[in-house]
Protein 1
Amino acid sequence: MQVGLFGLGRMGANMARRLHRDGHDVIVSNRSARPIDELKAEGIQGVYNIEELVKSLQAPRAIWLMVPSGDVTEQMVEKLIGLLEPGDALVDGGNSNWKDSKRRYALCKARGIQFMDEGTSGGVWGLQVGYCLMIGGDVETFKRLEPAFKSLAPENGYLHCGPAGSGHFVKMVHNGIEYGMMQSYAEGFEILEKSEFGVDLRAVADVWGKGSVVRSWLLELLVDAFTADPRLESIKGYVDDSGEGRWTIQAAIDEDVPAPVITLSLFQRFLSRQEESFAAKVNAALRKEFGGHAVKSAEGGK
């Protein structure tokens, strides 16, 4: 099938490659020209703005949007609603908030445009192993676009989750779980690293991946990280978040679901970004005041 893809970052460019490799007629575009030129050199057709992309596609069109969530996605959806025609399909493959996806679905439907929210997992490995796709929207649109979903995913690696918003909701929870898994590994390996045994952390990660109940792809990636840097000395322990963990916790609050592991894993990410914790200073000050406990002076302090 013919597919237009706008947004050629780490995932979008490789998605275009995977679709092209599987025989689809792919036309790409991006906000900057360099990624377009790179894909054109590989035999993939490219154009240099969203208007050209829409004009290059045959009706009914199918456009994948692979741009950062938030304002950028909002602006692109608004622009595309003004360019697309009834019967065209727009797939948001980014990490948008599921509530935004429900709203965008309604805006598109009012113009006769088909909208699908596609939660996409696979990162930089997606070209090689495929992308896990969690898809929300109308069944009829899903069936029409299914050849592309099938090409992007590994075998049985895509799912129509339900109506609009469900794809991004499922991906949101997926990422919340990911936060908890990563934090659990992080804490476990710090305990190992500080123990008296001088354990080979790479070897432990590797053997745990061979039949252990805690084996996972994340653990395989940790083997690669320890292989490159056995004590992770080149990495600063600063952990960002892109929103999905926060949204998962908010959904848990809205649904009265206890989710302590995911919640604490997000707060640990906040903690990783602090050079100095004011809360810790308050604790130290209180211990000094009520118990006369010693405190450590700040550098340059008296």
Protein 2
Amino acid sequence: MKLVLVLMLFLIVPKSFSQQKNLDYYLEKAQKNSPLLADYNGQIKAASLDSLLVRSGYKPQVAATLNASYAPVINGYGYDTAISNGQSVTGLVGINQRILGKNQINSEAETFKIIKESLTLNKKIALKDLNKSITAQYITAWGTAVQIDYNKKITDLLNEENSILKKLTQNSVYRQTDYLIFNTTVKQQEFVSLQLHQQYQNDLALLDYLCGENSTDTAQLQTPEIALLDQGNGEKIFLNQFENDSLKIQNSNRLIDNNYKPSLSVMADAGYNSSFIYQGYKNVGGSVGLGLTIPIYDGDKRSLQYQKNEAALQTVNAYKSNFQRQYKQQLNMLNQKIEQSDQTASALKSQFIIGEALVNADKKLLLSGDVQITEYIIALSNLITIQNGITQNTVNRLQLLNEINYWKSNK
């Protein structure tokens, strides 16, 4: 069994540290491969094109039409020629120009401006979400790598002492049962190392998955350099979502008002329009006209639309107020956890110093036969537990910094 574990570790370890990668590498990969960010880029471009499409509608609309018809009358049967004219040919070029007021143009332009700003903001938040999730998984994988390094040192130490204790047992310094207990501890530690390597492979696989990479390489992760970023007004990024919703509703009211203003259009056409009944060759000409639409009554739809928008605005304001309360509360909890993590780190550091001193002392006594093997194993197990606690606390603190940066930073 021991030979199998050692062989598996031998196969895993060289591959585990074949290539060094840092956090920026994974962030860049994730941003490059993210379909959501690509989707937002496409939507932003589409919004710009939609704005240009609407603006093109402000320009004169020119269209050419060609129609020809023939309605025969056979033995007195057929369409009334007073209506059908018997036959007709129409070939016209028409021009239609909407007359829009400045307020109408500004309101429609504001619509696309708000849409584009909203998409840009959503893209920025999506990028923050992506960076946060990638960073969190990177920290988790790095924490496992730290545990691997420490457990490897412990395993190497135990293997060195194992050969020494074996000789001391053969010389009757220690009992055979004591040596078997120590040998069992060595095997357990080797098994823990194997589990950690497997966990590290799984952590890296998930990290690659989140980045959109199909990689089977097992890399060595560099220590993540995570500190509190320049604390800009990060709250504003999230509040802008509510502000954009409010602006959208206000602009909707202006668009409603525009629908109830008189609309004027100018029309003109020129070409050939003839029924060939009389001097068809002279039926070349043109026409001009005005179209005026004045809304009078629509069943009070305008008032109902206002009420609907007002209800939507109240909902937006309620969500905004709730977010502001929870935002402050959440940051207070995160800062409190940072303080607790610092306190825990200080306590674990003191315990580690004492535990390491005890293990070193027992190690010397162990070689001379002046301490029980079980006492040494207990001291070593306690030191491993303390070191695992230090690693976990470090990982938790980095995760907290990642969370605070997400909420408070403009980046």
Protein 3
Amino acid sequence: MSEKVLKVSHLDVYYNRRQILKDISFQVNKGEVVGLVGESGCGKTTLAKTLLGIQKCYTGEINCVAKMPQMIFQDPYSSLNPAKKIGWILEEPLKLNTGYDAAERKKRVEEMLQRVELDTTLADRFPSQLSGGQRQRVSICQALMLEPEFIIADEPVSALDVTIQAQILELLKKLQRDMQLSLLFISHDLRVVYQLCDKVLIMKDGSIVESGNTEQIYFSPQNEYTKLLLDSKN
């Protein structure tokens, strides 16, 4: 039996008394990548914020056994402090959550930069001095600093061009495999999800309208909205 990292049961989420998400239920197992797909405004980011405890107005159950789940954001530039160097940004979670001294923190930063295939000299640069692809690698690195078991990736490649997208997806695959990460991968693009995910949840208007393994969703969709999403990518 698979070990659950996250289980969501009958989740209803509200914002300003308006219901945004309706009866959401799913689970993520250890080492599994689950894709959450839907058009802009369907509630994907609201779900991510609720899972991380940012959005607190909800009913239902969220059972996350992973310690300190982390998030990779869509726009790496706005999620990185432009006034601080990369080394400082990556050290900050270690300062707040570990007993590492300065030398240990620096060593950890260098190890993690190498893990996301960046030169360690980038620690001395500001975010504005990096390319979009490099900034997204730093954002991934930041999410991994505390070795979380579970990561939510919110449209992490949508702001990148196709070539860089492919490189970042390959990196995420490698990191997920090597570190046995569990991921909730949010996207509007089923082609991207097909490359990375084990299972897929299709969201429309705040509800999950179809779910299943990736091959099943991609080649034998049952819901008309899922078929529409697939047709729009062909």
Protein 4
Amino acid sequence: MTGRLPAITERRTREIAGATLTDFSPAALLSAQEPVILRGLAADWPLVAAGRRGPKEAMAYLKRFDAGRPVVGYTGDPAIGGRFFYRDDFSGLNFDARRVGLSDYLDRIVAHLGDPAAPSFYLGSTDLDRYLPGLRAENDLPLPPPVEGRDPALASIWIGNRTTAATHYDMSNNLACCMVGPRRFTLFPPDQIANLYPGPLEPTPGGQVVSMVDLRAPDLDRYPGFAEAAATAQVADLEPGDVLFYPALWWHNVEALGAFNVMINYWWNDAPAFLDSPMTTLLHALLSLRDRPAAEKRAWAGLFDYYVWGDSGRPAAHLPEQMHGDLATLDDRAARRLRARLLERLNR
């Protein structure tokens, strides 16, 4: 049984119409912990204005800022329908990735405008300041400076023709600014991971694990749990100038729907910069915990509840301060010391 599920298009992402900078507070967005569309927040950006005049105008505007550094361009055969994924036999990825000149790649896209059988062209997650320096001076959200000990937001640009980024999650909070061409996000909460049937940890089409379910035609015989995920899904349809916020670890399928599309996004974490990636912990848990007996795993789950998932101050609260050791509140120095101990253990 295959086919698009009606429930996916029935739930719409909450939105604030005619959003202005007074509606824009990253702290408030984070506190809600749910996606929201800020309609028109970036509507007056020059890149949006250039896109309204047409794809060639938008490309000419982008070329003004090309630093001449090679970028990674993804190119797929017309047969993939714009969906960057795995080959049908899962022997590898269904596209070619190679270093290209940004302006040259834009010329390749423009050469296929209006071609119904165009190759799929995609520049994903390209650092804005490194590859298009100066563009943010004219097109930028006034994000507050990072709290002490936290990294600033990372600004990236996404460019291509009609493409689909398969359903995946990011480990950072996201502000996705639709610049040129309409874009559709289909979002799923983190607790739907099992019903989204994640693919391998590597290789991945874009650096993150993707769902094996094709939203264009979900195969419910192979992935029956997706029906439950679909009931929780919400859709965010964006026009140029709209901004979508969604929290870290929300799954999202992203469809770029115009002949030429551009998005700028900001990633940031509300956590100290010295913390390691939780993915490192997950990989180590596969090595150390996954294949232990079930009773042991249940016991370790209790230990993690106590030391990690619960109140961070509780494990040391009953101990004299001089005995806190690794249980003390982390800072940069303590994190370095703990990391060194872990490396020593791993290198035995």
